[in-house]
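Hi U.,

Before I forget, here's the chain from the pilot set. I'm dumping it here mostly so it's searchable later in email.
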Amino acid sequence: MTSVARLPMSARSLPALRRGNRERPGFTLVEILIVVVILAILATIVIPKLSNASQTAAENTLKEDLRYMRTQIQVYRFQHLEVMPGFNGSDYDADTFRAQMTMATNINGQTAAPGSDGYPYGPYLRQLPANPLNNKASVEVVSGLGQLPDADSSHGWIYQPETNSFVADIPGVDLGGVAFANY
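Structure:
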């Protein structure tokens, strides 16, 4: 009878361990590179859409601010015997406009702190909103019936009481090609 030499347990399992290392699940370098390339392609598609989303949001905020401001200007006008806000008794100016829109007023357009006796109207705004495209809350008041000045971003808004015009002081066009002056 021939005797079979038996190897110790650790020596017999060595080839199985080596084989098991090769069969163990995992990712190869090529597979990882493919995933990275796919993620890069997706990023090039998504990032421009996200940057346009912030511009679109700012444009929509601008439209909403203009709608709200125009509405509040009309409310003031109806409550003050057809006199537009900003009238100081002889002319229109930006400081009077801001005060009349953000403070309580009487029928003559005189201002006082909200809740003051004899000043039943307003305030129409908590504060004048900043233009979301240039972050300026100032108003350029243009008196007369002439054409509005070209937008130059020197203020947040341009207001012409005689023509009931309230527009953004932003040159250029939006993502859809519409001039900001036509909002």
